[in-house]
Amino acid sequence: MKNHGLQRFKYMFWDVIASCLSYSILFVYRREWLDVESAKLEFTSDYFSQSYYLGLITVSVFWLLAYLSTGFYRDIFRRSRLKELIYTFNAAILGSIVIFFALILDDWVSSYTDYYKGFFVYFLSQFLITALFRFILSSQTVRKIRKGKISFNTLLIGSNENAVELYSEMGNKTHTGNKFVGFASVHNNIRFLVEKNLEHLGTHTQLPDIIERNEIDEVIIAIESSEHEKLENIINILEDTNVNVKMIPDTYDIISGKVKLESISSAPLIKINHELIPLWQKVLKRLFDIIASMMLLILFSPVLLVSAIMVRATSKGPIFYRQKRLGLHGREFEMIKFRSMYEDAEKNGPQLSSEEDTRITTWGKVMRKYRIDELPQFINVIIGEMSIVGPRPERAHFINLIKEKAPHYKHLQRVKPGITSWGMVKYGYAENVDEMVQRLKYDIIYIENMNLFNDLKILIYTVLIVLQGRGK
Fold it and tell me: Judging by DSSP bridges, how do beta strands 152-157 and 218-221 pair with one another?
């Protein structure tokens, strides 16, 4: 039986204990073995003063926030002890540097070598104590998995030779933690797995219902080469579920280096990662979005004011135009823009604009050329409906038309839509559905290579386009 909340609490509790012990070791070391003037001045009566307890609370909160922001406490039961050790080592180095710069670097010492000594003592104690507690917790979990006390409801997708072979290899081994509750077929041939007493739960088109009804933790895709045309559809369906997804590799996957050896005793599998960007980068991206959006709205407030006046002066209608778009996970929101078209421009239904579009006002053409009409979208960013960098959001009407030609459009809804994107940089505004499909490939590549460095490059290119007035 898995209790995720209790397991997370155990990790967090012992991480706090480890941070307190390591800070205490540093405190005692600096007072007893280093000539720290500030320590002499601070401790006049009791050995542990008020500043010590304040430091204790500060470093404990710091370490907890650091672990939470990097996603350490997620997927708490399925974790390699070696990877956990490497993570703990890297976190200890970086965190110790931050602690020293923030709390200790101002202390007076007789020699700068005392700083290095103090840092080494703190880093070593933080790493060793934290790693010891985590190793004990992880080892307890591993023992429970091997004894079958902890298991993960597993769904097998496929029913032919590959699925039968995988189930024969993994189905009766409890040490992997996989508890096969049944299989979902891709085609009608289900006899082989049924003969092995594995229950047929439905077809791949029923996956969301199967996963919810059977409380599935992990899905393993084991389909034949002849069934690969279904693979994209299966993965698209699984993206909306909160399960670990793995699949058996083919020869190309193996020689291209996609298969990573995670366990000597289990079958080689490719783990399909739903996380497009590490949690710590996601947090930094959100912070950047908020801070940059606020600063840009203040910086460009004169431009916003002039644009608002010009919109009102050059044509009848509201200053701002709110349009319903689909964002993260297909959720609908209202995107805010300066109105660049005449009122009732879409009275005959949704239409895409073009360079010679007579619906665009004179001032609207100027705004579009320099992307001024997009500035109010920084409000959408602050609210959390959009990001500064991300695929452009579209209306449901056009998304349905795009999906008819490119079903993989759904991948774009795995992230927040943005004001600018690589697709916008490379292609600009699309004038028809075919151009939307062409632009789509750039945004798919961006999503699969998402990181803060690529965001920065896209922002630089966007600024150059705006300054040169090359907005399409």
Answer: parallel
